[in-house]
Amino acid sequence: MSSVDGGDGSVAFPFTAPDPVAPPPEYAQLLRDRPVVRARIPSGDPVWLVARHEDVRRVLSDRRFSREAITAPGAPRLLPIAEGSKSVFVMDPPEHTRLRRLVAGAFSPARMRALRPEVERLADELVTAMAKEGPPADLMAGLAGPLPITVICRLLGVPYEDVGRFRAWTDIMLSFAHGRREEVVAARQALSQYLTGLIAAKRARPTDDVLMALIEAADDGDRLDDEELLAFGYTLLGAGYHATTAGLTHAVLALLRRPGELRRLRERPELLPAAVEELLRTSQAGGGLGALRIATEDVELSGVRIAAGEAVLPLINAANRDPAVFTDPDTLCLDRELNPHLSFGHGIHHCLGAQLGRMELQAGLAALLRILPGLRLAVPETELTWSAGLAFARPDALPVTW
């Protein structure tokens, strides 16, 4: 394997893909030859990489693989998660069960359905504004960035003029580049101060938004405390903004590379829900870097013994291309019927905002297909520059014309 470290046979992770929209070649090699392999992450910590769909599902759902353990002092981590974090994203039962129960109502199917017309209207307005200004346009600045962050601001009830600061803080907080710890701490403190003030203001004058619903959420007298509310704010900004921005960008690039499929989708918009699932399956927008876990007992995966206390990283993007599960896994099949992809996770940590993420991808793509029928890249794809060291890979700009 190209990235084997000659010292102990482990591989260096994350892998460097020659094409940022396609999986690194190591994924296919792991699926075929080494489904569980030792690796070293940028911090120097050793981890086990797990590639096969069956094993990844097990790691994501088996409670012997702890999320909470990665918040312990000195624990290996790819993303700068705070020690002792109270985010539902890094908790184990029973605390995870309690928090999930309290926040689930804020993301109920009924609340998400009620939000859909607003998301679709916003996507239409953003793409219409791009069309009026005329080509070329930057799709990152015109749609992929503002759509998710505006929706998150709507959910949190924050003024849109603060979007720039939110973007800057979360860009830093979701960096896994080594040596940025001081920047990460400063960004987290700034965001904490802002959200603390926002929570206090809402308690004094209640509003109609998801953050207010979280403040008021109660179960037999149990409520979220301020630290838990802050942690959920971080999660919303990271997963709801960055993941969706990157996901929409990767989906557009995947379609622009396949003009025939783009035309087919424009002519048959009823395919859009299935197409979004397939674009999620094949997307490289998120490498699953936040899915790291620690084994609490000895566990065997594909014949390899994982010892208690060792870190395990389930490679969701590799599992999504497992030929044992997906026919022609490297082919983008927009009407794929059986599609048990793991892009939103699996088990108790399955993404709370999965329905919202799907909705935004569908709305953004639908608006582009309808309003900009001649959409294409305005520059050769080789001229795109990509932001380095982010958990959710995306280009700095995406110039398009039509």
TrEMBL record:
CDD domains: Cyp158A-like. GO terms for molecular function: heme binding; iron ion binding; monooxygenase activity; oxidoreductase activity, acting on paired donors, with incorporation or reduction of molecular oxygen. Signal peptide: none annotated. InterPro entries: Cyt_P450, Cyt_P450_B, Cyt_P450_CS, Cyt_P450_sf. Keywords: Heme, Iron, Metal-binding, Monooxygenase, Oxidoreductase. It comes from the Bacteria. Belongs to the cytochrome P450 family. PANTHER family: CYTOCHROME P450 YJIB-RELATED, P450, PUTATIVE (EUROFUNG)-RELATED. This is Cytochrome P450.
